[in-house]
Amino acid sequence: MQQILKGKAFVYGPNIDTDQIYPGRFLDLTDPDQVGKHAMEGADPNFVKEVQPGDLIVASTNFGCGSSREHAAVTLKAAGVGAILADSYGRIFYRNAINLGVPLIVCPGVSQQVKRGDSLSVDLTTGTVTNETSGVSLQAQPLSDYVMNILASGGIKPLIKQQYGQA
Amino acid sequence: MHAIEKILAKAAGKAAVTTGEIVNCKVDMAGINDLYLQTLRSFFEMGGKKVHDPNKLVVFLDHYAPASTIMQADNQKQFREFCWEQGIDLLMDVDQGVCHQVMVDKGLVYPGQVLVITDSHTTIHGAFGAFGTGVGATDLAIIMVTGQLWFRIPEIIRIHLDGTLPHGVFAKDVILKVIGALGADYGVYRGVEFTGPVLKQLSVSERMALCNMTTELGAKTAYIQPDEITLEFLQGKVKHEYEVFITDPGYQYAAEHTFDVTGMTPQIAAPHSVDNVAPVAKYAGIPVNQAFLGTCTGGRAEDLAIAAKILQGKKINPRTRFIVVPASKAVLLEAMENGTMKTLVEAGATFVTPGCAACLGTHEGMLAAGEVCITASSRNFPGRMGSNKANIYLGSPAAVAAAALTGKIVDPTEYLK
Fold this sequence. Notes:
The complex is a heterodimer.
Chain A: E1 4-11, H1 18-21, H2 32-36, H3 47-50, E2 56-59, H4 71-78, E3 83-86, H5 91-99, E4 104-106, E5 119-123, E6 128-131, E7 137-139, H6 145-152, H7 156-164
Parallel strand pairs in A: 1-2, 2-3, 3-4
Antiparallel strand pairs in A: 1-5, 5-6, 6-7
Chain B: H1 3-12, E1 22-26, E2 29-33, H2 38-45, E3 57-60, H3 70-86, E4 91-92, H4 99-105, E5 114-117, E6 131-134, H5 137-146, E7 148-152, E8 156-162, H6 171-182, E9 191-195, H7 204-212, E10 221-224, H8 228-234, E11 255-260, E12 267-269, E13 277-279, E14 290-294, H9 295-298, H10 301-311, E15 321-325, H11 329-337, H12 340-347, E16 349-351, E17 372-375, E18 391-394, H13 397-406
Parallel strand pairs in B: 2-3, 2-5, 3-4, 5-6, 8-9, 8-11, 9-10, 14-15, 14-17, 15-16, 17-18
Antiparallel strand pairs in B: 1-7, 12-13
Helix pairs in contact in B: 2-5, 6-7, 10-12, 10-13
């Protein structure tokens, strides 16, 4: 797993629910590439046109609240999002994203310090977030060992497969 | 320890647990919804061949009941075949209704149970003193492989409901008031327990509405201490043995809030956030294109009966459509047998298949751009029920029926005299 992530920021406000991240009318899709085409469609129709692999989502509080749909994590991963930084997250979305190996970083006040298009770098080990466009640095909560282990394994599936996979 | 902690401790095989601790719990029942074929994909991706225990899994074909596209039909087909291959007898097909109501109707929920479903509103089962929580597809697949899942022992918030509920004010109004006061992220990662004299004024159906909506506070789970109302309801329904856990005296809640409901008026959550709550008077007069009554939040027999009381012998406003979704087959049958369905259909209601219907924005009552809907369901997010240029207001089943009658948002209390 990469320790330092770099990417361009897409910035959103509070309470971005999973219907906005991935609208309900596309829930019958299962192929990640297809799912990825509708990322953030309810909140920001331009997102999929502009996002580049490794780009970062920055949000205020309660990002990913609402429905349990794992599609919300799948779509962001498939669209190439490298990590998400927010004040707080909806709890089911948090588990879903970590399970898929997408780093979710709790960084209070981050959405106030970043504008859309700013270049950020994130050190996953120390939790240091640097806005390279403005020069401002922020300290995020470091990821727990439990979460780091899942991320380092490329998500929870390889871990479970190794432990419990049936021959 | 709190009763929730005792439930999780027992499931983890431990004598005691503490707040913040991560424990691996045996799951008593796990449910999968038809939206999430990813659950089966994740099961196979993790090397799954046979499920850990087919008797502890239930599959609900509820969100797309019945399928309205070929892809939905194909997803449901894969679920059915999986159940047949794996010996999962609890396949709830498209005739059965919303997962949560089906669980209750079939006597599958009981106090002290650890219940995990791929639906965020699994908090509803706190109404029975169960630990109910929603997860995503891969977490559920982990249960399918291992029979267990990890949980962080949550802080518990106590919401004390004091006073006497006025006529025409319902559990939905109370919980909207609470969410409006505390905010949509107040309960994130935490459990919510309801206490107080108001609970004795609430039926099991109303308690379910209360616990259901704690998801909109962000809560991980909800809890109401089982009492004679709970146990009487479960009598004869539940075959499984169960244990009622009781919180130790002196347990320290992470926070406590008291709401006095005496003198409260009906509440409305306005677009586009569940915590954007005000008394109904603030929005009175707004014309309504669609009134939506149903779902796991507001589609039980009592909810339909309240609507029938308002609409008895009357016709809905010709410019308003009134979509009614019974939460389950049992609810539909009850509404047929007691005449509620006839009253509502004669008044102009459009009945659709028991299930989730338009609450998740896929079928059976979608909204066009610029339209206004008042709904007894749980969410008014942008685009939740169709166009993201539609406006969704949340209210009680009574408020929905009164809006269907008058064609606008009104205080329902005067129609319940």
